[in-house]
Records
---
Amino acid sequence: MGVLDTFSLKGKVALVTGGAGLYGRQIVAALAQAGAKTYIASRNLEALEAVAAEERAAGNDVVALSLDLNSDQSIEELHRTIIAQSGRCDVLVNNAVIRSAMSGWDHDLEAYDKSLRINASALFKITSLFGKSMAANKSGSIINIGSMMGSVGLEMGNYIGTDMMPDPSPIYHYEKGGMLNFTRWAASILGPDNVRVNCLAPGGYFNGQPAAFVKNYSDRTQLGRMANDTDMMGAIVFLASDASAYITGTNIPVDGGYTAK
């Protein structure tokens, strides 16, 4: 097998939680274009069906399924459905996330628990279910979509000259930071069965933010720009494929050098 062949996902089965959002859309496209039968799952089935239809029109094999990460039953049903339909799952991309609308950090426990249930507890459960199936097959790749915010504090200077000045909550930074060490822990547990677990940590995505914010943020990176709608694709295929067969337990920032500066 030549080195370029190791990047192929032909014959592989992948699941992406979410898939219609800013980063999710390019993750789905990358896996599908590389040849994987790709399942996408979230509560917004209508949005996912539109993504799946677009990919199928391009000749790719993408199927939309329903998933409520707030529900044990829904997570378990998704796992049963994919195994029943395809016999296995080779790649799991934990991409879905709830972005809390909380500001500041003076909240009762219930407000924090709501976010943690989706972004931490559900992450543990879905990774356990699919990870055990992969372990039984002695092969698999799990990719957690983190954030550069899991490695750094908040840069208030990015907001200078805008009307976006935040009253920050700790929850997103806390969850994404925890995801990094969960990745290492899961890699330790699943590694003996040849299941790899890695984290990709994207940086800020250009989405029509005010010019001052874009300049401030871009100046903070080493490449001088925000992320675009293709920047995650290569890294996803790399970690999903045999090209990264000896890589596990790591975090790869895809942030234009933001966290290295």
---
Amino acid sequence: MTASDKAPALLDGVRRLDDEWARAIGGLGEPELRAPSALPGWSRAHVLAHVARNADGLHNLLTWADTGVETPMYPSADARERDIEAGAQHAAADLLADFVASAGRFERYAAAMPDDAWAREVRNRQGAPVTGVVVARMRLSELTIHLADLDRGYDLDRVLTLLGPLAEDVVQHAITSRGAHLPALRLVADGFEWTMGAVSGATVRGSAGELLAWLSGRSDGSALDGDVPRIPAWA
């Protein structure tokens, strides 16, 4: 499957999760937004501000892939942190409006991308090369993981169920992101299978959500079956 063939399915998943986010955050007021999220030290407002700035950052990468003009995801790591903290302090109505607007900007730009742009390479915030289609997968992964982090009744299995076959892409993105920390391993979940390194590596089984929780640092892997290796915290 070519990059331009894969992009529409990923963007459909992004739209589906944007709609689910709208349901999850609709009507949230100040008390709910200032309450803790599932991420240590972050309120729900921090999660919303982070996901909104992620939409803008990934929009920058799509612009880079589309135009060929270098457009980094963020001006700097410090600027990224400052923008998240500043956004989290906004009044509830402004924060929710910003979240919806940033998601809409990403969706609209992605929908207008020419087919050949999806295969062009840009660099993520760590400096690694990624194609336009990987940028779409990054957005899908971000929406998936942080919807559970919002602590509004979603766990990762519930969110992945909304995506159907695209759940495989989200878990694969986490595996790719954590590849340097994973030993030879076979992961099996919900009809999907991923193999890293030697075929003789250990097998770890669980639901897709349980695997994603472990890979993304949301769990220690104790819910999984098999010899689950310890991996460093998600950076």
---
Amino acid sequence: MASEAAADEASETYAEFIETVERLSNVSHAGMVLGWDQEVMMPEGGTPARSKQRSALSTLSHELLTSDEMAAMLDELETEDLSDEREAVVREIRRKHDRAARVPEDLVEEISQVSSEAMPVWQEAKAEDDFESFAPTLETLVELKREYAEHIDPDRDPYEVLFEEYEPYLGIETAEKVLQRLRDELVPLVEAVRESDADLATDTFDGEFDTDTQEELARDVLDTLGYDWDHGRLDTAPHPFSSGNQFDARVTTRFNPEEPLGALMATVHEFGHATYTLGLPREQYGTPLGQSRDMTVHESQSRLWENHVGRSGAFWERFLPTVKERFPDQLSDASVDDVYEAANEVYEDNLIRVEADELTYHMHIVVRFEIERDLIRGDLDVADVPERWNDKYEEYLGVRPDTDSEGCLQDIHWSHGDFGYFPTYSLGSVLAAQLYDAAEDEIPDLEAKIREGDFEPLHEWLTENIHRHGCRYTTPDLIREATGEEYTADYFLDYVKSKYGDLYELGDDE
């Protein structure tokens, strides 16, 4: 009888624990909706109120997560014999609780308010090519995030602590190792590509492309890939992003009349994020089992759909007729080979990360990673960021920005205080190749299915192996479950060397 009573008590504690966790999750999702609205629909004058609203929600989340009641429930549950799923929920909340409990509430509130107020400052600075007007805000955010990291663990590298906000399980050593390997192996590949005499149809999308028609085409591609419009929507934003949960996963993109392919690929990219979110188990909404694994896994989904599907010849065999219907004057004579070559061009002088090709993209990430790491560690002053940025672009990419707008002001991340986020883009690209290889092994004739517009088998494989697990597994365990192997950059490097070797006729040496 005593054991039954103890079991009942543990069950009651877990039920109370889950109720608090779900409340915490709902507060977080409310904050996400406010953030989406600020970037997509809010009038410019709404910032003072919005910053206070988001700050209040951040403070409330912090209070719920760090309360004495939460600590007591975690302590009790960790002594119980829990199921694997319940153990995973406790593990995830414990990790967040322990980090958050070390950070004062007033600091959390200040970071939220400053980052909310920073966005319009960054937007204006970018529009006016005026880094100096953004520099004081950036300096404040750097100082606040250093203080945040110091509270969590004063004895560790502050950048490592911040990196774990976005990827808590792979480790900074893995990130540095992968980024170093990409730099070592991609730079010579890019140089070989640029020296190649291959004549690709890189002018296929030259001309003017009406942005309203581009939006119609973006909706076409979402229809083709299987986006669930009952649980999502498409809007425009200065910086494309996806936001939401398994009941409401929204995507945004942006349009340039001279860059229709950029908008299309950005839409496919954000679709990858949204389809992951929509694939999370609905019955677990509000708990870690119904939440996505961290940013490496999330980015793997967007990169898989953008690069391994959206830039493939098989996809363009299916989708090119739709593109021609929307833009008959510009693309009536374009072949699948023409569009495939244009979609996979390695640019000579690209300065903008979100417009970068699949190869040079990772050098854009390395630049940001090295600069933000030095900022947080105190090895670089904010005032010196533009020059350091330009020097690294010249060293790694062979180009030098003429303006800060196309240089260090191009990304929104630092205005959000998101230091440590950038490495997950490359980590996710690497994982995308590993996952796609595993999917190809298990889905018969996957390329043929893509050519026929049958994306459901790939959706199902990703849902079965990634989406439905939520945060049940740590990142390394999830990768092993999905692929049977440890996380590795081998598949990505083999993929790009083969693909671009063929495109640019490099032979076997590269």
